[in-house]
Amino acid sequence: MAFSVPVDLDLIAQRHSVRSYKNESLTRDEVSQMEEALSELPKGPFGGEVRLTMLDAKALQLKGERLGTYGVINEAPYYLAGAVSWGTKPLADYGYVMEHAILAATKLGLGSCWLGGTFSKSAFKQAVGLKSGEFLPAVSPLGHEAPKKRLVDKLLCFVSRSKTRHPFESMFYNAMGDPLTEQAAGEWAKPLQAVRLAPSASNGQPWRIKMTEEGFHFALAHTGSFQDIDLGIAMAHFELVAQSLQLNGHWQTTDLPETTLALWKL
Ligand SMILES: Cc1cc2nc3c(=O)[nH]c(=O)nc-3n(C[C@H](O)[C@H](O)[C@H](O)COP(=O)(O)O)c2cc1C
Q: If one looks up domain 9-158 in CATH, what number appears?
């Protein structure tokens, strides 16, 4: 079954990190719609196997298992968590697949927040039943956003300047290596804007994309495990918004020029 949640640039613009939640559960309908979206998740573009599940935080707490986030998140009724097995770029695969689930949650009006660092690894590993050969790179709370942010939430937004993004022209380039304007990007400006608005670890926005006749060459300004997750997230945003505009292309992830990590081939 193909991923059926419609994702356009408006939905991408609605998503933001939510760290303060209302103390209320998800409705049965929200849970079942999320589960349906999880059953339709695509495979990762680099070939790693990703599985994702919803964890009921209250039910686990009753069993004495606390899904801790060092106080960064409060009152979230559910968590999205999973595991990826080794592939060529397992973290990018995880970012790509989990961002589909995050956008499905956004579509339902639910809040989410990628957590790569501030979560208790052992509790989540146990809750997802991590097997050997698998690892758990990141999780996200799911729930209804609280009307007011807590102080820790405001501080984290301020520190990561989470509302700001680099200018379009400083992330995207033309075939000559010169800055790409939105006008020159033409119909591809929206998929590129979707990358620009993507979440990234510490709001680092490491994506650098070169538009050539062949397609869009995705690279990273700095590398590391979180940046690989950021790469996968950006690939999901680009592809889903291209699809919403009926713009064609497909991922090529092998036999690439040295600095290209993935190519959206036209
Ligand atoms: C891979 C990854 C890891 C992240 N880890 C954390 C984290 O451990 N704690 C946290 O509070 N936010 C974390 N974030 C959220 C980012 O800080 C946030 O996405 C960024 O500041 C942009 O803000 P926005 O999501 O509201 O657009 C992470 C984001 C990504 C993509």
A: 3.40.109.10
